[in-house]
Structures are given as structure tokens and as C-alpha cells.
Structure to design on (1143 residues):
């Protein structure tokens, strides 16, 4: 069945509602029937000729609004006016950096115009906090962690280098095509670049090795093919929104992906060396990264070996007593250890080229029952057939070509998937609501023309991600207030059409960082390895919650299988696999955390003390400071009365002998209220 | 309002918000109305007697051939080579056959074989039914634990307890529906009691962790201090008022309302849970029954007694973990010690449940992640063996006195009426009134099940 997908969007509201009702009634089987066949929107080429619908609407600030407002008009809805400036500042600050704006910004020079907002956006786009916040989102996709997890919870002592690479790349606005290429094939790129870039290229391939591995699996062939599977799954979902993992055992049930497509890709990673060995408990590859000191370190190491050898030789000639012989043995043992260890050069988790080879289909995904034919390494046919062809050099793994193929401007998925992820970060939901599944079972785009226009825009801007961020942030659509009006609530209860902004809860990391920041206890040092409980040990042996670092949450080691309780409670689940979007649940444990965790009460006490020396009373200015810190706004007169009333009550409740402060109890209550952890 | 326009995903998310109750009908979720609790009991697929589960998980892999799977030929052929091939993949190298250091006897009307490791449990023989032909595929602890708990040793999947919580909901609005006591944080860690893609409300609330003394464990962030309570009540009023004025400003938002309500639920949980966790509220006789006064049995006795209290209060799935049954060497010494730690507490648990009329509706399960080899590792140990192991069942919904499945003459492989871990899961769900093929969740474009595409119910076990 061949179906024109786009015209549906120009049709009347009745048709849309009918479509929606049908969806509810029939579930997604309707959708797959609707979209089956060759014309699945996501595999069609990106339409680079789309122009924004013409309008003379004065509220339009940039082309995004032309697309969004046109759709709203079809449904007889109007966009909301812009949110008030403090609300907008707070929203943008959280969306861009994961942190609230500084309260001084409200108190000393409150924003007065749209120009102030644009300057604010530019400032934050250049803030190092931007790369930290958006880097964390990328790390979700890359299933980043600091330990292996699953069976043998080995420390990934070098993983932090990849994390820092991601933060830095996003802060520098490294072009997205380059960013992907380095992560897939950085080790194969030209070495004729400064050493820093060489190092980055190697570190970037950590993307492929960060997954959990069954290190103690004794069927080593299974271990290796499971690693390949995990790599393909993460890579395809992250870059193409493709759930190709299903095709390991059978042709994909819904998407045009065959077993052969899967094993063509699998051959590329089977030809890549991810593991250093396949011992009883296997170990992954770590590559030396270039640094100007490396030569010196190597020389020193060599010198030390020579010196020690000389000492041993001298001793051997005079070794006449038992004591001296024992000493000699000891020295020889140490020398051997020194030799084996090699010079202490910096290393990164990284892949290398392996033995290039093609592999057969594993029947029903089982490595002990293989098909008779070798599948040539290559790319999913349904997507590749319409693109400029790329052929794989048979003497190499094919990663270089895979990266080139993914970042070709005619790739239908790469740019679409990435702009959709950015959109999701600013509205809580992507234009495609299933950000890592653009297949037939994924959601169709709510605004297909806008999605294509943004994707084309990303490519036109030489893959500058910050260009897309700025476009969204400066649109009227983004700046709308979040109150839904009656009409919108009736016609579009999920706000798919974006007649207003969405009220969104902060992520676990933002909540933690905001709590610490409110008490002025957040350490903004960037990068590097946060001290691990048992630094340099092979196994992770701690209990999981002992990192009392006050660095941003991003820098706390992520221990697979032992997540921070606070993170788990606020929906950052185990980091064992690609995470396309965080959920936002509401469970009583979150309330218990806000009521009883010392992190919250300590920050509340600090903020209370900073605000007022008197633990029982607050002046208007002091109240302003507390509200600016927590909510980035002034209290209303009703709130001022409420605060005073509660302060009196807390004073009566707290026993005279107790050292608890009523003002601290008040601040604690305000921190536990919704507004502190929601953006409007 | 929103109830006829609500999307499936939204509905599921709201299930965690205390806004709705859900029932499972023909495999799909249907909204049935506004309820005050977080997750409310849902009708099951199939009528069943079992309402709750207590899972006694023996971490490390207890030896089936030294406990419940009696192998006379193993004694006869002690020291001889195994007369057939060992598996293609083994965890470690093993040598010749090693006899069990313990003698076996038949107990009760059913004539169940139980070794002398469990003299107390043997008095309850007629309550028990055994599956002796369980087999998995993963020969390492991590993979085997994940397989047992989540059905997958390859991918991150929801745990059995989370599936049951999702399928049946909570019986008590003031308590979580899945609690795990002293679990290991290694070998898969929280994944073994996590909810993966199911709504997080179904993940286990953890009490303690492996190696912690039960005397001083609790639920995170539960505060019982009375003085703090009064202040907290005043703070809750402030929070509610502050939230209400925000909602008035922004208009209706179910999330904001639900989050306001969640503070009340948290506060109720805080009122109920500390008393439940306090074992001093039990009589001396009951504590005695669980072996709490003896130092050997105290810790696991406390786990079992707490499990009964939580279960009685309506927690659907309580898991108690005990270990570490991984005797690559010193089998006799260590298995002996471990068995002693659990024998009285488990016997006490079964008796106590029966006295209180709870055994009929509480499914008690005992088992580890794999069995052990009949061949010796070193001189006095046994290696991991995922090819054959035994679990037993008691109480809710089972037919007692059954011994299902047979292993070979030495207990290396399950050979007759083999029960794969997927079959085990299908059977446990069936005992809880859930059809494993209809208990599904839509994620990443397809419907997922605890049993993936496998699973056959062991009908012989169903009462």
C-alpha cells in the first residue's frame, strides 16, 4: 500500500481527530498498516527544498514559528504569548545548562526586554555548563558508566576521558558529522594533527566500548558476538533511531531490516578489536593516547630498567649469602613487574582494528548454528539503496566507511534523529515522540515539514548543533508561556501542536545540583576523574553511595548495578543500555527524599542562614532572596503572608531547646514544593 | 476530562501517579477510574489462591545433589570419571565424581527426599513440591542471576517481582508492592530487582544489602522521629498551599496534583512502615519459632519474620536473599553452616504462615541461580552447574507433595520433564493468576514479556 504521508497534515481537524480516535481504538497495528510499504517517511530522503509556510503573523520570530503556527491555525488554535521574562530565563537556563539562573541576575539588574533574553541565550550557549548539561544527555544515549556492571563489576578507570571528550566537543560546537566520525572511527582518522586532536580521536571511540560485557562468560565466542550486538544496538539507536537489534535472530518484524543487514553491520564490528584478551575473566582494550610527555616517560622507564638491571648484575656477582640471594630474587621480581607494566602512559578505553572478515548469519541469533554464506560487510540496504554508495575496503574493518556513510548529507536518518533529540530537550517531547525509534512502530512526526527543514538546516550549517539550539531558543514557539487554554486542552490535550510550552520536571541530576546550589554548596570544577572509592582496583567494591563529592552530578562515577538511590528515585535508571529519554514518574520515595534526606535539609539550613541571621523572622528583602534563589521570582503578597504565618507556626512547633531554625524549616518546605523542581 | 483522550503511554505514566487503577484485560491495560492509591490491586487473569509471594533466594548456587536431588549412584561411583561428556562450556575444570557428604531420607506422606542438611524443614515435607529438572544456560553468577530474576542474561529487562507488581498491583496503598531484603548489589545488582522499562513504581524497595545485619536496616529516608513529625506536618501544609497556588496559576496539570498527593502517601508510608519493620512487636514465641534468639539463625530468621510481616500487610512480592552458597571448595563445611542458618527460620516461616491461615494464599519459593556439578572441583568442592538444579515451592496455589522432573544418574543434566527458567517464570506467574503470554508491556515498538517468546507452565505443580 502506497500512502502519501504529508497531505494528512494539511487536512481538516476532523480528519486528524478521526485519525487520533482510530489510533486509540486500534492501537499501533493501524499505524503500521497505514505506513507499511516502501514509503515510510523516515527512510525517504530529507526534503531540502521545504520553505516555511508564508505568514504575516507578527508573533513569528523565526521560521520554526511559521511551521508551528500554520499547524495551529489549521486546528483553530492560537499560540500562547511569551512567558514573562523571569520564567523564560529560568526555563532557558535549566534547558541549556541544567542549572537555574543566578538570583543576583534577578535582583540587581532584572531583565526588561527581549534583547536581554537574546543576550542571555548567547551567554549560556558559550557557558561551559552548556556542554555539561547536553553532554549528560549524550551520555544517556552512549550508556556511559564508570564500571562494567553485569557479572564482573570491573572499574572502567579510563571512562571519564570519554565523558570529558563529550562535554568539550559540545562546548566547542564540534560539527556533528565530525563528532560521530570520531566516535565510530577516530582511531582510523589522519594522525597528522596536533597531539591533542589525536588523543581526542582515540578517546572518542570509547563510545563503542562502554557497554556492559559478560566478562566471565566462558563461551568466548558468545562473549564477542554479544559485544558486537551491544555495539550495533547502541550505535543504530543513537545515530539512526533504528532498532536493528531485533534482526540478530530474525528479519525485523516491522522494519525493512533483514538478518543479512544485521550481519553485514556485525561484520564491521567483528573486524574491530574491542577486547584486549579473552581470559577467564576477559579484559577490554585500552589504547595509549598521545601526549608530549610520553617520550620522556618511556625514556625514564627504559632508564630505570637499565639501572635496575645493572644493580642486579652487580649483586649477582657478589651474591654469596642466603640474604643476598633472597634480595636478588626480590629485585628480579620487581624488575619483571616493571618491564611488564611498561611506562605509565595515559590510556583510554578505545577500539582498534581487528582482523577484517565477513561473518555468516547466526541462525536464530545462535553463534553455534551459522548459515553457510558469509555476508559482505555493509549497511542496511533499505536505507543505503537510495544513497550515494559507499564500498568497504576489504582490508579494513569498515568503520571508517560506516562513519562516512552515516554522515553523508543524503543519509535520511542521521540529521533528522539528532535535531529531534535537541527539540526533545527543549519541549520535553520530540517532534517524533519515539526519539530512538524512527521505524514503522515508532511515532510519526507531529510536524514532518519542520523536522525536515531543521534536519536540512543542520546540514546547511555544516552540522553545527549550536545553530539548531539557537534557532529553537529564539523561536516564539519556545518562548510561549506554559498555561494551556481551554480550547487547547480540549482539542490537543497532549499539546502535540505546541500551542503552549510544556511544564516539565527537572532531571535527577538537575534536582541534585539545584539542591546543592541553593545552599551554595555546588563545586563547579570541570572534568577529570572524581575520586573512586577504591581507585585503581580492578573490581568495584564499594556500596554505591559513598561519593560525597559536591561536583556536578555529571562527574559522579556511575556504578552499574549500584546507582545512586537519589538518581534512581528520580528516574535515572541503571546505565546498562542506551537511554532515549528519561521518564518523569511521581512516586512517594521522591517525597520521602525531599522531606528527609540530609542533602535537602542541609542546603535549606545554609540558604536560611545566608538569607537571615534571625532564625525566626524574615524581612521582605530576605524573603525576596529566598524566592529568587529557589524559584527565580518575587513572592506575591499572598505568599508573603503565608510565609509569615508558617514561620510563626514553625516557631511554636519547634521546641525551645531544639537548635532547629524555623526559617530553615520554611526554606525546606519551599524546596520540597513542586515549583523548585519544575520549569514552567 | 482527560480520561477518554488519554494516550496509552500517558495512562501508564499516570499509573505511577496515584491517579488511576488499572486492570489487565486481554493483554492490554484499561483505565478503570480514579483511586486514591499509588498502585491498586488489579484483578488477575486466572482465578488463583496465591495472592503474594515470598521468594527465598539462595545466592551462589546451592548444590541440588546435596540437598533435595538424591543420587545413590553418585555415592557408589565416588572417585570414578563421569561416564558421559561434560558440557561444551564449563565455568572451571572439574575432575571425577564426588559423593555427597550427607545422607538422604524420605519424609512425610509424600516420601520427599531431603538430605540431613535440613532436619527441621523435613518436618514440613508434605507442604513442599519440588522441580528437580530446572536448567538455564549461563554458567557464571552474574548472568545466571539476571536470567533467574529477569529472564534475560543479555539485555536489561524488568525483574520477576516488577512484572508481578505490574500485573497485580498493590494490596496496600501505604506500602510498596515489591520489597527485597538484603539483596546482593553485585552480579547484576539492582537490575535483579529493577523495573527496567516498566514504570519505576514497580521496582523493589530495598531493605539492607548482602552482608548487612538485619538488626539495623531500614527503608531509605524513612524518618520515625516523633518530634520531627509535628514539624513535618506543618511543612506538609506549607508544601500543599504552595503547590495549590502554583496549580491555580498554571491551570490543571495532573502531574503537579499527583506530586502534591504523593507527599501525603509518603507521609502515610512513613507512619506505617517503621512499625512494620519493628520485629519487637512480635511475641517471644514467634521470635523463637524463627530462630531469632539463636545467633546462627538470627539474621535469616529476622529476614523471614520481616517477610511474613510485610506479606501479611499486603506486599505482593517479598524477596529474602541468603548466601553465599558458592562452594568451589569446602563443600561440607560451608554448605553445612549455611543450611543451619536457614533451616529453622524457613521451617518457622512455613509453620507461622499456616497457623495464621496465610499459607494458602502465600506462595513460598526456595532456590538459587544454578546447581552444582556432581564432579569434584579440587578435592572437596563443586563447580557451577546451570544444566540441572532444584527449586521447591510451598503454599498458595500449589499441589503439595509433587516431585517434578528428573536428572541423570549423577545429577549433571536435567533429562526428563525438563523445566527451563522461562518455564519456571511461566509457572510462577500462573500460580499468581497471571497468564505469561498476556502479561505484556509495549516498549521500543513491541510487546515484551517476562518469558520473551518462550515458557510452558508446569501444570503438574498447579493445585
Amino acid at each position: 500500500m502506497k500512502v502519501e504521508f504529508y497531505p494528512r497534515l494539511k487536512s481538516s481537524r476532523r480528519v486528524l481527530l478521526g485519525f487520533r480516535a482510530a489510533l486509540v481504538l486500534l492501537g499501533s497495528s493501524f499505524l503500521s498498516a497505514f505506513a507499511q510499504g516502501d514509503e515510510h517517511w523516515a527512510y525517504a530522503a530529507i526534503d531540502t527544498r521545504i520553505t516555511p509556510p508564508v505568514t504575516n503573523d507578527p508573533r513569528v520570530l523565526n521560521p520554526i514559528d511559521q511551521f508551528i503556527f500554520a499547524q495551529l491555525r489549521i486546528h483553530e488554535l492560537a499560540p500562547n504569548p511569551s512567558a514573562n521574562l523571569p520564567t523564560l530565563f529560568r526555563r532557558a537556563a535549566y534547558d541549556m545548562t541544567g542549572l537555574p539562573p543566578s538570583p543576583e541576575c534577578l535582583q540587581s539588574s532584572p531583565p526588561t526586554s527581549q534583547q536581554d533574553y537574546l543576550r542571555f541565550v548567547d551567554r549560556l550557549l558559550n557557558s561551559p555548563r552548556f556542554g555539561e548539561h547536553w553532554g549528560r544527555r549524550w551520555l544517556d544515549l552512549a550508556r556511559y558508566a564508570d564500571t562494567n556492571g553485569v557479572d564482573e563489576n570491573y572499574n572502567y578507570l579510563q571512562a571519564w576521558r570519554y565523558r570529558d571528550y563529550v562535554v568539550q566537543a559540545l562546548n566547542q560546537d564540534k560539527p556533528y558529522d565530525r563528532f560521530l566520525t570520531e566516535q565510530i572511527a577516530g582511531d582510523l582518522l589522519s594522525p597528522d594533527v596536533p597531539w591533542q586532536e589525536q588523543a581526542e580521536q582515540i578517546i572518542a571511540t570509547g563510545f563503542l566500548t562502554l557497554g556492559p560485557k559478560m566478562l566471565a562468560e566462558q563461551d568466548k565466542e558468545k562473549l564477542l558476538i554479544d559485544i558486537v550486538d551491544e555495539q550495533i544496538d547502541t550505535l543504530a539507536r543513537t545515530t539512526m533511531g533504528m532498532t536493528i537489534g531485533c534482526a540478530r535472530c530474525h528479519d525485523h518484524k516491522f522494519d525493512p531490516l533483514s538478518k543479512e543487514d544485521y550481519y553485514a553491520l556485525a561484520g564491521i564490528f567483528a573486524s574491530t578489536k574491542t577486547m584486549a584478551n579473552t581470559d577467564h575473566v576477559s579484559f577490554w582494550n585500552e589504547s595509549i593516547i598521545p601526549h608530549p610527555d610520553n617520550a620522556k616517560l618511556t625514556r625514564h622507564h627504559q632508564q630505570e630498567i637499565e639501572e635496575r638491571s645493572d644493580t642486579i648484575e652487580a649483586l649477582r656477582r657478589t651474591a654469596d649469602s642466603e640474604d643476598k640471594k633472597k634480595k636478588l630474587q626480590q629485585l628480579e621480581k620487581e624488575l619483571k613487574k616493571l618491564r611488564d607494566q611498561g611506562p605509565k602512559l595515559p590510556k583510554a578505553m578505545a577500539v582498534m582494528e581487528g582482523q577484517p572478515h565477513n561473518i555468516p548469519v547466526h541462525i536464530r541469533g545462535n553463534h553455534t548454528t551459522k548459515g553457510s554464506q558469509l555476508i559482505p560487510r555493509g549497511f542496511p540496504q533499505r536505507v543505503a539503496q537510495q544513497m550515494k554508495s559507499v564500498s568497504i575496503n576489504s582490508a579494513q574493518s569498515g568503520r571508517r566507511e560506516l562513519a562516512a556513510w552515516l554522515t553523508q548529507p543524503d543519509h535520511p536518518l542521521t540529521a533528522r534523529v539528532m535535531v529531534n533529540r535537541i527539540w526533545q530537550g527543549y519541549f520535553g517531547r520530540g517532534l517524533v515522540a519515539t526519539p530512538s525509534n524512527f521505524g514503522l512502530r515508532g511515532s510519526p512526526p507531529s510536524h514532518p515539514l519542520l523536522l525536515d527543514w531543521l534536519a536540512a538546516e543542520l546540514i546547511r550549517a555544516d552540522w553545527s548543533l549550536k545553530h539548531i539550539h539557537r534557532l529553537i531558543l529564539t523561536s516564539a514557539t519556545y518562548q510561549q508561556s506554559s498555561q494551556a487554554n481551554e480550547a487547547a486542552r480540549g482539542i490537543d490535550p497532549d499539546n502535540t501542536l505546541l500551542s503552549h510550552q510544556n511544564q516539565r520536571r527537572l532531571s535527577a541530576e538537575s534536582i541534585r545540583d539545584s539542591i546543592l546550589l541553593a545552599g551554595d554548596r555546588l563545586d563547579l570544577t570541570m572534568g577529570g576523574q572524581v575520586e573512586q572509592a577504591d581507585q585503581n582496583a580492578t573490581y568495584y567494591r564499594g556500596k554505591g553511595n559513598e561519593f560525597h563529592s559536591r561536583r556536578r552530578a555529571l562527574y559522579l562515577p556511575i556504578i552499574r548495578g549500584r546507582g545512586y538511590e537519589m538518581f534512581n528515585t528520580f528516574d535515572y535508571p541503571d546505565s546498562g543500555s542506551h537511554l532515549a529519554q528519561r521518564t518523569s514518574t511521581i512516586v512517594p520515595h521522591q517525597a520521602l527524599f525531599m522531606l528527609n534526606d540530609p542533602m535537602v535539609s542541609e542546603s535549606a539550613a545554609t540558604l536560611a542562614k545566608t538569607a537571615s541571621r534571625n532564625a525566626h523572622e524574615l524581612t521582605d528583602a530576605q524573603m525576596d532572596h529566598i524566592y529568587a534563589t529557589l524559584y527565580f521570582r518575587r513572592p506575591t503578597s499572598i505568599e508573603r503572608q503565608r510565609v509569615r504565618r508558617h514561620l510563626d507556626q514553625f516557631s511554636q512547633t519547634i521546641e525551645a531547646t531544639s537548635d532547629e531554625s524555623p526559617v530553615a524549616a520554611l526554606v525546606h518546605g519551599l524546596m520540597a514544593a513542586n515549583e523548585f523542581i519544575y520549569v514552567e | 476530562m482527560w480520561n477518554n483522550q488519554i494516550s496509552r503511554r500517558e495512562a501508564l505514566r499516570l499509573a505511577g501517579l496515584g491517579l488511576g487503577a488499572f486492570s489487565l484485560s486481554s493483554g492490554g491495560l484499561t483505565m478503570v477510574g480514579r483511586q486514591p492509591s499509588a498502585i491498586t490491586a488489579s484483578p488477575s487473569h486466572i482465578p488463583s489462591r496465591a495472592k503474594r509471594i515470598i521468594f527465598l533466594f539462595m545466592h551462589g548456587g546451592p548444590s541440588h545433589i546435596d540437598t533435595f536431588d538424591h543420587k545413590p549412584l553418585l555415592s557408589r561411583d565416588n572417585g570414578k570419571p563421569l561416564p558421559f561428556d561434560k558440557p561444551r562450556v564449563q565455568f572451571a575444570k572439574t575432575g571425577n565424581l564426588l559423593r555427597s557428604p550427607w545422607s538422604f531420607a524420605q519424609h512425610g506422606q509424600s516420601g520427599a527426599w531431603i538430605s540431613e542438611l535440613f532436619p527441621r524443614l523435613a518436618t514440613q515435607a508434605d507442604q513442599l513440591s519440588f522441580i528437580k529438572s530446572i536448567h538455564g544456560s549461563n554458567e557464571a553468577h552474574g548472568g545466571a542471576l539476571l536470567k533467574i530474576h529477569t529472564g534475560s542474561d543479555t539485555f536489561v529487562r524488568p525483574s520477576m517481582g516488577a512484572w508481578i507488581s505490574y500485573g497485580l498491583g498493590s494490596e496496600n496503598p501505604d506500602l510498596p508492592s515489591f520489597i527485597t531484603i538484603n539483596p546482593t548489589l553485585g552480579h547484576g545488582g539492582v537490575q535483579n530487582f529493577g523495573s527496567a522499562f516498566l514504570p519505576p513504581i514497580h521496582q523493589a524497595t530495598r531493605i539492607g544489602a548482602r552482608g548487612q545485619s538485619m538488626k539495623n536496616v531500614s527503608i531509605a529516608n524513612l524518618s520515625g522521629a516523633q518530634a520531627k513529625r509535628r514539624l513535618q506536618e506543618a511543612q506538609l501544609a506549607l508544601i500543599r498551599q504552595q503547590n495549590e497556588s502554583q496549580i491555580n496559576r498554571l491551570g490543571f496539570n495532573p502531574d503537579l496534583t499527583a506530586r502534591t498527593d504523593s507527599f501525603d502517601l509518603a507521609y502515610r508510608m512513613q507512619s506505617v512502615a517503621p512499625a512494620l519493620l519493628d520485629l519487637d512487636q512480635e511475641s517471644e514465641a514467634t521470635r523463637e519459632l524463627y530462630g531469632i534468639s539463636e545467633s546462627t539463625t538470627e539474621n535469616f530468621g529476622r529476614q523471614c519474620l520481616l517477610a511474613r510481616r510485610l506479606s501479611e500487610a499486603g506486599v505482593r512480592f517479598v524477596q529474602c536473599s541468603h548466601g553465599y552458597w558458592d562452594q568451589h571448595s569446602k563443600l561440607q563445611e560451608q554448605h553445612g553452616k549455611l543450611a543451619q542458618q536457614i533451616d529453622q527460620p524457613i521451617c518457622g516461616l512455613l509453620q507461622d504462615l499456616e497457623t495464621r491461615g496465610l499459607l494458602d494464599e502465600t506462595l513460598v519459593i526456595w532456590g538459587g541461580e544454578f546447581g552444582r556439578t556432581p564432579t569434584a572441583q579440587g578435592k572437596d568442592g563443586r563447580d557451577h552447574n546451570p544444566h540441572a538444579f532444584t527449586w521447591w515451592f510451598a503454599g498458595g496455589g500449589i499441589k503439595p507433595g509433587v516431585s517434578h522432573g528428573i536428572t541423570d544418574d549423577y545429577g549433571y543434566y536435567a533429562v526428563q520433564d525438563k523445566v527451563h527458567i522461562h518455564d519456571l517464570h511461566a509457572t510462577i506467574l500462573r500460580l499468581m493468576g497471571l497468564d505469561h503470554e498476556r502479561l505484556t508491556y509495549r516498549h521500543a515498538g513491541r510487546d515484551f514479556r517476562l518469558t520473551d517468546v518462550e515458557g510452558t507452565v508446569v501444570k503438574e505443580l498447579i493445585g
